[in-house]
Amino acid sequence: MVVLDRFVQACGGPVARLVVLTTASSKPEVRVAEYRRAFGELGVEDVSFLHQDHRSQASDPVLLEALNRADGVFLAGGNQLRLVTLLGGTTVESLLRERYHRGLHLAGTSAGASAMSAVMIARGRARSAARLAAVHMSAGFALLPQVIVDQHFRERDRLGRLIAAVLLNPAMLGFGLDEDTAFELDQENRVNVFGSGSLTIIDGSQLEYSNIDIVPEESPVAFAGMHLHVLTEGWSYGLAERRVERPAAEPMASETVV
Question: What is this structure's pTM?
């Protein structure tokens, strides 16, 4: 609820006009019930729930009008490949990108977060060492052009597949989001972390060596020089300079005598 409340406040509070796109879900009625209840508890009354099962529906005037008047758009979870194949290259994607660059508050969870990448993890194996077969990539919406987003990160042990994704795209940053955790991108191109879990950042810009181009797909990859950061609430990360920023004043840990 903390993450949704932060989104609502950014959009203008309970008076905000919100649109929830359930396109990624094969059971949209479940998502609608879930978010109707959640946004209702936060006092938001003007929420439109819209779903697409066919690409032709992405030019529906009702959908486009709702997106044009929205203060915030929320991409619900499900299957990110379904989301981008239904909306990628459509009027909806163009409108979302245009409005996002003009200040629309855009958020997503699970598949909705992954789809914001330019190079997106379409599917892959969890609980595996970094290996070529562990991850399959596709184009995303490119709303976060520098970042590959993975989700349910620690809960589903996805470190290996995110490392593999960055090894395949070393100019990109890998962002692994735990559940009940989010980041927001501010106007200074700085990522601010909040929630109860952590954001794992994998930076391949200083990569010294990788043999991902020559090992068999099922074999573990060797690599050196990868940078890894784990940030929690209050920590920030500058995308332009790729620099971690600590909270101004963290509370001192109490001493424990063993």
Answer: 0.91
